[in-house]
Design a protein that fits this description.
Elements: E1 5-8, H1 14-25, E2 29-34, E3 44-47, H2 53-67, E4 73-76, H3 91-119, E5 122-127, H4 131-134, H5 140-160, E6 165-172, H6 178-181, H7 185-194, H8 203-214, E7 225-228
Parallel strand pairs: 1-2, 1-4, 2-3, 4-5, 5-6, 6-7
Helix pairs in contact: 1-8, 2-3, 3-5
Length: 236
């Protein structure tokens, strides 16, 4: 495997942290972003507010210093939720989630792609969700933002595929994280019953899919949506 320079947004905890540590274990140089920029044991962290283009530009510039070169693999993982039923969802509930999850990812992809085009190499991996295709009550904003990532990846594939750049989507299902741990037990049980595998996934299993898409073996995989959901979203 060729060692690459990797940036993982929202890589300070949960799935993002698992991805960052997996990539490190495979010999890649890794920087992660977080809003605060607070240190994380064993990881190089830079502060980044992905809803602000200037902050994104500054984070990429700082990452370049730490990596001794431009980002070759972008894992766009940072995101948020603001769940409520559609009829109760405010404009701010909707726009803040879309601005972070979709527009924020766009800002990062746009910033990374310039150097990738010059290098004629790049791996862009966007973290979506089974909810983006499957839907979920109370998550119209989140589902819209996560399904939009597929459009970004497939448009990138058509625009930049000839430059040695791939763009793919990983769509996790219900993964054991701090976020899912906060769900009511009744909700957790209902979700688990709907999953053919009859269990929640692990962050390491998502990280494995991301590691493959970043690898030399995935050079001819682009515009794909890779589900890591125990079969929950099959057919979608």
């Amino acid at each position: 495997m060729t060692a690459r320079r990797v940036l993982v947004t929202g890589g300070n905890r949960g799935i993002g942290e698992a991805i960052a540590r997996r990539m490190q274990s495979e010999g890649h140089r890794v920087v992660v972003t977080s809003r605060s920029g607070d240190p994380v044991d064993g990881l190089q962290v830079v502060a980044c507010e992905i809803t602000d283009s200037d902050s994104v530009d500054a984070a990429f510039a700082e990452a370049r210093e730490h990596l001794d070169g431009d980002v070759e693999v972008l894992v766009a993982n940072a995101g948020m939720t603001k769940d409520t039923l559609l009829m109760r969802m405010s404009d701010e509930d909707f726009s803040s989630v879309v601005d972070t999850n979709l527009h924020g990812t766009f800002r990062c992809v746009r910033r990374a792609s310039t150097a990738m085009v010059k290098a004629r190499f790049g791996r862009v991996i966007l973290l979506s969700s089974v909810v983006g295709l499957y839907g979920s009550p109370g998550q119209a904003n989140y589902a819209a933002s996560k399904s939009g990532l597929i459009g970004i990846a497939r448009s990138m594939t058509r625009e930049l595929g000839a430059r040695g750049i791939t763009a793919n989507v990983v769509a996790p299902g219900f993964i054991e994280t701090d976020m899912t741990a906060e769900l009511p037990e009744k909700t957790r049980s209902e979700y688990q019953a709907a999953i053919p595998a009859k269990r929640y996934g692990q962050a390491a299993e998502v990280a494995g899919a991301v590691a493959f898409l970043a690898s030399d073996d995935a050079a001819y995989v682009s515009g794909a949506v890779i589900p890591v959901d125990g079969g929950l979203g099959m057919g979608h």
